[in-house]
Design a protein that fits this description.
Layout lengths: L1 H16 L7 H28 L9 H31 L4 H22 L6 H15 L2 H23 L14 E2 L2 E2 L9 H39 L5 H9 L7 E14 L2 H7 L2 H21 L3 E6 L2 E6 L8 H25 L7 E16 L4 E6 L1 H11 L5 E4 L1 H7 L3 E9 L8 E9 L5 E2 L8 E15 L2 E14 L3 E6 L8 E5 L12 E9 L5 E8 L2 H15 L3 H5 L1
Helix pairs in contact: 2-3, 2-4, 2-7, 3-4, 4-5, 4-6, 5-7, 10-11
C-alpha cells in the first residue's frame, strides 16, 4: 500500500522538476551551484574538525589542510554570489552563456584543486573528475565544458609533471607517503571519507536521473519522428525527411539562392469536368490522382512544394542538392505521364471521367527557404523562374511535357525532342523557345507512352462552333467551321478565319444529334495547316463522355477498310 502511494508521489515530483536536459542554461547552472553551496561549507567545516583532531585521519597533513582553509571559504563565498546572481538571471536572461562559462569554470577549478591536493592518479579524484565530466557534457554545450575542462586538465597534468621534477609535491594533502618500498599505501584512502562519499552519491544520483530523462526524451523524439514522417511522407522523400530531421537548421527562417529544376503540373480541363460532377466525385478523383502522382514524385526524390487545386508545384534540387536534378525531373515527368494510364484505369472502374495532365519544366535560380514568421512559415521557392514554369505548362495539352531552353541545354543529348516552337509568354517582350519531350535515354531510358491514334478523314464533314477562351474568360464571338479529320485525341477543323497557335477554344457540334448540342468541349490549337492558315489542328483538353463516344464511333467508322481493300 505504501509502495502505491510512493509511486504517484515520485511521478508528481518528477513532473514538477521536469527534464534537466530541457531546462534553461541558468537553471542547469543553479543545479550545480546549489550542490556546491551545500558541499563547500560542509567540506571547509570538516577541514576545521580534522585540523583540531588530526588523530581522526592520520594520513592527512594538518599543516597543509590549514593552508587550504582560506581557499575553501573563498569558494563558499564565490558559490554564494553565483547563487544570488543566478536567481536574478533565471527570469531575466535564462540562456545567459557568460554565466554558464563562469559556473562551469569554477566547478572544474574546485575539482582540479582537490585533485592536485589529494593526488589525481592514486586517489579517487580521477573518478570524481570523470563523473563530473559526464554530467557536464550532458547538461552543457561542448564549448562551455571544454573551457573549464581544459583548464582543469592543464592544472592537474601540470602538477603531475612538476612533481616529477621536484618543483611541487605530489598529493601535498597526504601526510604519509603513498608509496612504500614499491607498494602502494593508502590506495583509495578517501573512499572511506564522507566528502568523497557525498560527491560520489551526488554525481551517481544526478547522472542516473539525467540518463533516465534522456531515454524518455529519446523515446518522445522517436515518436515525434514517426509522426512527422506520417504527416509529410506524401510530400517529401525519405531521404529529404531524414536530411531535415538530422539538420533542423534547414528549417530556420531565411532563404538562399540556388539552382533548381521547377516542375509544374496541371490537369487539362479539370474545371469543366468538376462542374459536371458532384463534389464527392471530384474529391475522389483528385485523391486517386494525387495518390499515384505523389508516389512517382517521391520515387525520384522530388519535393512537392505546393498543391494548388489540381496542380502540383514540384522542386528538384532542394532542400537536398541533386547534381542530376534535370535528368531526374524529366524522367519523373515521363513516368508521371505514363502513370496516367493507371489513373484513368481506376477512373473507368469507378465510372469517373478520364483525366489528362500537362507538365512544364524550367531550370532556374530561385530564392529558396523558410518564408514567413516565427509562428507560421513555409518552405517554398520564390523567383520569376517559378512563374515561367507555370507559363510553359499553360501551353501544354494532355499527355504533353514541355521544357524551357535552359532545361534542354543542360539535359544534354539524352533527350528525345519531338517538336519545338516559339511562344510569347504573358509579360515577356522576347519569344521563348519551348520543346516537347518524347523520351530520355541514359540510365533512366524512358519513352512517353499513350500517343494519339492516326487521323482519319471524314466522308461527311461535321459542323462545329468555336469560341476563343482567354484565361478563364470565354469570348463572345462564335466562329463557324467544320470538322475535316479526327483521331481519338484531336481534330482538324476548317474555320472561317485564322486563329493563333496555342489558342484555347470552347466548342460545340451544333445540331448533329440528340443530346450533343448542349455538351461543350474544350481544346487547344496546336498547329496551323494549309497555305491559307484557316485549317487548324486542335488537341482536346476537356471533353464529356457523350462527345468522346460520338467521336470514337466516327473514327471507327472512317478508319474501317473499304470494300475495295477487302476484296484485294
Amino acid at each position: 500500500m505504501e509502495e502505491t502511494k510512493r509511486i504517484p508521489f515520485l511521478k508528481k515530483m518528477i513532473g514538477r522538476v521536469g527534464n534537466p536536459l530541457e531546462w534553461s542554461t541558468v537553471d542547469k547552472c543553479l543545479l550545480i551551484i546549489c550542490f556546491w553551496v551545500l558541499l563547500a561549507p560542509f567540506t571547509t567545516l570538516l577541514f576545521h574538525h580534522y585540523i583540531s583532531n588530526p588523530e581522526r585521519i592520520p594520513f592527512f597533513d594538518p599543516v597543509f589542510m590549514k593552508k587550504l582553509l582560506p581557499i575553501g571559504w573563498g569558494f563558499v563565498i564565490a558559490w554564494s554570489i553565483l547563487l544570488v546572481v543566478g536567481l536574478q538571471l533565471r527570469h531575466r536572461s535564462p540562456e545567459n552563456s557568460t554565466f554558464a562559462y563562469v559556473t562551469v569554470f569554477l566547478w572544474w577549478l574546485e575539482e582540479a584543486i582537490v585533485a592536485v591536493c589529494g593526488g589525481p592518479l592514486t586517489t579517487p579524484n580521477a573518478m570524481v573528475l570523470l563523473g563530473q565530466g559526464f554530467v557536464a557534457f550532458l547538461l552543457f554545450r561542448i564549448p562551455v565544458v571544454l573551457v573549464g575542462l581544459g583548464f582543469a586538465l592543464l592544472l592537474v597534468v601540470g602538477s603531475i609533471i612538476a612533481s616529477q621534477f621536484g618543483l611541487f609535491p605530489y598529493a601535498p594533502l597526504m601526510a604519509a607517503p603513498l608509496y612504500d618500498g614499491g607498494r602502494l599505501v593508502n590506495l583509495w584512502a578517501f573512499l572511506a571519507g564522507p566528502i568523497y562519499l557525498i560527491m560520489y552519491l551526488g554525481f551517481l544520483s544526478l547522472s542516473a536521473y539525467i540518463i533516465t530523462r534522456w531515454r524518455d526524451r529519446e523515446a518522445r523524439l522517436a515518436d515525434l519522428t514517426i509522426m512527422l514522417k506520417k504527416m509529410f511522407g506524401r510530400y517529401l522523400s525519405t531521404e529529404v525527411m531524414n536530411s531535415l530531421i538530422e539538420n533542423p537548421s534547414a528549417l530556420e527562417l531565411g532563404g538562399e539562392k540556388r539552382k533548381v529544376t521547377v516542375m509544374m503540373t496541371d490537369l487539362r480541363g479539370f474545371t469543366a469536368i468538376a462542374e459536371r460532377l458532384e463534389p464527392e466525385k471530384v474529391v475522389q478523383m483528385l485523391n486517386l490522382y494525387f495518390e499515384i502522382m505523389v508516389d512517382v514524385v517521391l520515387k525520384y526524390n522530388g519535393t512537392i512544394n505546393e498543391i494548388i487545386g489540381d496542380a502540383l508545384l514540384i522542386i528538384f534540387g532542394a532542400p537536398q542538392e541533386m547534381p542530376d536534378r534535370i535528368q531526374r525531373a524529366i524522367a519523373c515527368s515521363i513516368d508521371m505521364q505514363n502513370a496516367m494510364t493507371q489513373v484513368n484505369k481506376e477512373n473507368r472502374s469507378k465510372a469517373l471521367p478520364e483525366l489528362e495532365m500537362g507538365i512544364g519544366l524550367n531550370e532556374t535560380e530561385v530564392i529558396i527557404g523558410n518564408i514567413g514568421s516565427s509562428k507560421r512559415s513555409k518552405y517554398t521557392v520564390i523567383g520569376s523562374g517559378v512563374n515561367m514554369a507555370s507559363r510553359i505548362e499553360s501551353y501544354t495539352v494532355g499527355g504533353q511535357i514541355l521544357i524551357s531552353e535552359s532545361v534542354r541545354k543542360q539535359a544534354g543529348e539524352v533527350l528525345r525532342i519531338d517538336s519545338q516552337q516559339n511562344v510569347f509568354p504573358k509579360g515577356s517582350e522576347i519569344p521563348l523557345m519551348i520543346y516537347e519531350v518524347g523520351g530520355i535515354a541514359g540510365s533512366y531510358n524512358l519513352i512517353l507512352e499513350g500517343k494519339d491514334s492516326a487521323l482519319v478523314t471524314l466522308a461527311l464533314q461535321i459542323p462545329i462552333r468555336c469560341t476563343v477562351v482567354e484565361g478563364k474568360h470565354v469570348g463572345g464571338e462564335r466562329l463557324q467551321g467544320k470538322v475535316i479529320r479526327l483521331s481519338t485525341k484531336s481534330i482538324e477543323i476548317a474555320l472561317d478565319e485564322q486563329i493563333e497557335l496555342l489558342t484555347n477554344l470552347k466548342m460545340d457540334l451544333g445540331d448533329v444529334g440528340d443530346g450533343l448540342p448542349g455538351n461543350d468541349f474544350y481544346g487547344k490549337v496546336i498547329k496551323q495547316l494549309g497555305k491559307d492558315g484557316y485549317t487548324h489542328s486542335v488537341r482536346f483538353t476537356s471533353i464529356p463522355p457523350e462527345i468522346v463516344a460520338y467521336f470514337q464511333a466516327l473514327h471507327k467508322y472512317a478508319a474501317r477498310p473499304s470494300p475495295k481493300n477487302l476484296s484485294e
